[in-house]
Amino acid sequence: MAKEQGYLSLVTEGLWHNNQALVALLGLCPLLATTTSATNGLGMGLATTAVLVLSNVTISLIRNLVRPEVRLPVFVLVIASFVTAVELTIQAHFYELYLVLGLFIPLIVTNCAIIGRAEAFASKNRVDRALVDGLAMGAGFTLVLMALGALRELAGQGTLFYQAHLLLGEAARGLTMTLGDDFQGALIAILPPGAFIGLGLLIALKNLVDKWLSQAAKRRASAAASNAEPSLS
Amino acid sequence: MTSTLISSPHVPRVNRVDRVMLQVLLALMPGVLAMIWFFGWGVLVNVILAVGFAVLAEALVLLLRRRPVLPALGDLSAVVTAVLFAISIPPTLPWWMTLLGMLFAIVLVKQLYGGLGYNPFNPAMAAYVFLLVSYPVAMTNWLAPELLSGIDLSFSDSLAMILHQVLPAGVDWDAVTAATPLDEMRTQLDEQLTIAEIRDQSALWGVFGGRGWEWISAAFLLGGLYLLWRRTITWHIPVSMLAGLLSLATLFWLIDPQTHPFPAFHLFSGAAILGAFFIATDPVTATTTRRGQLIYGACIGATVFVIRTWGGYPDAVAFAVLLMNIAAPTIDYYTQPRVFGHGRERAR
């Protein structure tokens, strides 16, 4: 790498410009399957972030010891170990959430976002940078999972953070919101088609915001240019 | 070689989108009138609501896309989508579901893909399936034909039912609603009754299809024949679709007439005729090659029979059409006609 990116640019890459779910479109299987509610999305996102951070740090530490020929099996072993640890932790401390997320926690092993970061970033960078990258990428992924989960939950059953206490403890019961008892949600939002439609809408929204930002930047640039012009003439 | 001499003026056939859509709307008239006759004013209210919502949604999206609004509204394609949707939904569906359906059809299925001519899926059927999956109870709550329930709902009664879900005094839902013939057939067959027993005990059966439904289908057939006569559609898709449905229905009926209804029942009880002439023939989402159209239609017909017989839903035209919409580009790819002077190397 010619020029090393600062921590701040690592964070914006992870949260926005190179968001694993909205831009790289990696890890779509858990993204689409577990986002039936905001709570599930948040739980899955946090589990993925934990694995991502741990694997990034470990792989960065051993990056000079692993021969390139065997790097991928080593990465997978590292990731699989951490997924097992995270799965056991969730099973021990958040058993009800474990029942909901069920099969999808072991599947974090196959989440392309994690091995993607391991291969593309952690195996080429220092530990501190790998840690920041893991946190930022994980946070970006978690935010998308939570947004999609909230969107589907709202449209599908008219609630938000239903059963949040499973994840965040009894204090989070107050977090649950409902749109009223006579709200008839569109069931399709919770079914698989809703995941695809919702993700499409989120990606469209991101592109729209990017377009607005670039237009605003262009306007600022031209305004600055026209301001600068009179002083020249 | 001789050729016929035709003197001038050589006026070409006018083939514009709005003309085609107007023909389709005209051809839908007999069927819509028959539906109003059998199911009451709710059908008309639904048509008006759906057309209004569809036109508003189309105008809104075109404004957002900064495209000219009037030409796109004037091509009447949104109106056709709305009418096809309105006659597919139950006559007393709450108005906001119609609104949701039309927003889904026009905004998501049609305009987000680029508007008329670019949408891979039939907007009316996608909206119908969207609602059927989302609100299964409301979407299967069909009125009984008036000649069965004996209750004559006035225009204002129908309006009140659609806008506020309020029934007229002294009437309850059970008195005015009934299972559709296909639904009834499915439920009863699942309860191990034979066709003869089902036909004996239920008042839903008419001469050759469901009571009331058979005449609605016949009216749509009339409209379909008009479209064929005006050459707005060609025979390939309707004939192959009905043939696909009929051949499977006949085969299974011959094998076991007590668990499979008479083939005509399949044609005249649900949306088969409407689907064959008006929905599967949508020029945007169907195949374009002649051979491809035969395959496309036959597959829709077969899928309809398979879903009706073994699937989870009593009628299947919308699902079958959407499934084959996905396959249409592939079918077109493999059935492109040979360009004159090209190909046939192997024959030499």
Query: pLDDT below 50 for ≥5 consecutive residues: which ranges of chain A?
Result: none
Number of strands of chain B: 0
Share of helical residues of chain A: 55-70%
The helix content of chain B is 55-70%
Count of DSSP E strands of chain A? 2
Distance between the termini of chain B: 27 Å
Gyration radius of chain B, rounded? 21 Å
Beta fraction of chain A = under 5%
Report the total helices of chain B.
18
Strand content of chain B: under 5%
Average predicted confidence as pLDDT of chain A: 84
Query: Could you report the average pLDDT of chain B, rounded to the nearest whole number?
Result: 87
User: Quaternary arrangement of the chains shown?
Assistant: heterodimer
- Biggest sheet: strand arrangement of chain A: 1-2
**Number of contiguous helices of chain A:** 9
Taking the sheet with the most strands of chain B, its summary is: none
The gyration radius over C-alpha positions of chain A equals: 21 Å
Distance between the termini of chain A: 43 Å
Q: Provide the succession of SSEs of chain B.
A: HHHHHHHHHHHHHHHHHH
Give the helix/strand layout:
The complex is a heterodimer of chains A (233) and B (348).
Chain A: H1 7-17, H2 28-34, H3 38-61, H4 71-93, H5 95-101, H6 112-120, H7 127-157, E1 159-160, H8 165-168, E2 177-178, H9 192-232
Helix pairs in contact in A: 1-7, 3-4, 3-6, 3-7, 4-5, 4-6, 7-9
Chain B: H1 17-39, H2 42-64, H3 69-74, H4 77-86, H5 95-111, H6 123-134, H7 136-139, H8 146-149, H9 155-164, H10 173-176, H11 181-190, H12 195-201, H13 213-229, H14 236-255, H15 263-269, H16 272-279, H17 290-310, H18 317-334
Main location (chain A): membrane
Subcellular location (chain A): Cell inner membrane; Endomembrane system
Enzyme class (chain A): translocase
3D structure, described in words:
- The complex is a heterodimer of chains A (233) and B (348).
- Chain A has 233 residues and is an all-alpha fold.
- Chain A has nine helices and two strands; from the N terminus they run αααααααβαβα.
- Chain A has one domain (7-226).
- Chain A has helices spanning 7-17, 28-34, 38-61, 71-93, 95-101, 112-120, 127-157, 165-168, 192-232, and strands at 159-160, 177-178.
- In chain A, helix 1 (7-17) runs parallel beside helix 7 (127-157) and helix 4 crosses helix 6 (112-120).
- Chain B has two domains: 15-177, no CATH class; 180-336, no CATH class.
- Chain B contains 18 helices and no strands.
- Chain B has helices at residues 17-39, 42-64, 69-74, 77-86, 95-111, 123-134, 136-139, 146-149, 155-164, 173-176, 181-190, 195-201, 213-229, 236-255, 263-269, 272-279, 290-310, 317-334.
- The chains are: A mainly alpha (233), B mainly alpha (348).
- The interface between A and B is small, with 9 and 7 residues.
- Chain B: It is found in: Cell inner membrane.
- Chain B: Part of a membrane-bound complex that couples electron transfer with translocation of ions across the membrane.
- Chain B: This is Ion-translocating oxidoreductase complex subunit D.
- Chain B: Keywords: Cell inner membrane, Cell membrane, Electron transport, Flavoprotein, FMN, Membrane, Phosphoprotein, Translocase, Transmembrane, Transmembrane helix, Transport.
